[in-house]
Amino acid sequence: MAGDPITEIEYKYLQEFLLLWDEYYKQLNEGLAAPEVEPEAEQKFLALHLRIAQHAQIMKELLEGEMDFDGNVFKVLTDSVSLDILRGESPIKINHMKSIWHDATIQARKLQAVLRNRLAA
């Protein structure tokens, strides 16, 4: 893809975010399904949590208003402080959080398509 260098940076940063975001969902499901949360899994989850928050904040500034899913990202992160705490939550709350995660993913993928089209133009 050849195009505007700023759009290329935005696109690559969004791709990195989506990889982190998908890994978050994977770790979330693994942590909820495990008989107990291992300290290593909790630390890995918390480190990923922090990376996503940092990435989302930078993307919000980089994309200047085009990132309409940041509210959902921060809602998921706020609602999932740790795997151990999540395991004590009701299934309804967990499913609601997963629904918000999916909404943010769809919005991010739409933005990815917009940026990809800009690069192709």
Account of the 3D structure:
The protein is an all-alpha fold. The chain has one domain: Four Helix Bundle (Hemerythrin (Met), subunit A), CATH 1.20.120. It has helices spanning 5-33, 39-63, 70-79, 83-87, 91-120. The radius of gyration is 16 Å and the shape is elongated. The model has no long low-confidence stretch (mean pLDDT 93).
Describe how the helices and strands are arranged:
Blueprint: H1 5-33, H2 39-63, H3 70-79, H4 83-87, H5 91-120
Q: What does the average pLDDT come to?
A: 93
| Spans where pLDDT lies below 50 across 5 or more residues | none
- Count, helices: 5
Structural class: mainly alpha
β-sheet strand percentage? under 5%
The CATH class, by name, is Mainly Alpha
Please outline the major beta sheet: none
Entry summary:
By secondary structure, the chain is mainly alpha-helical.
Keywords, separated by commas or semicolons:
121 residues; 82% helix; Four Helix Bundle (Hemerythrin (Met), subunit A); elongated; mainly alpha; 5 helices
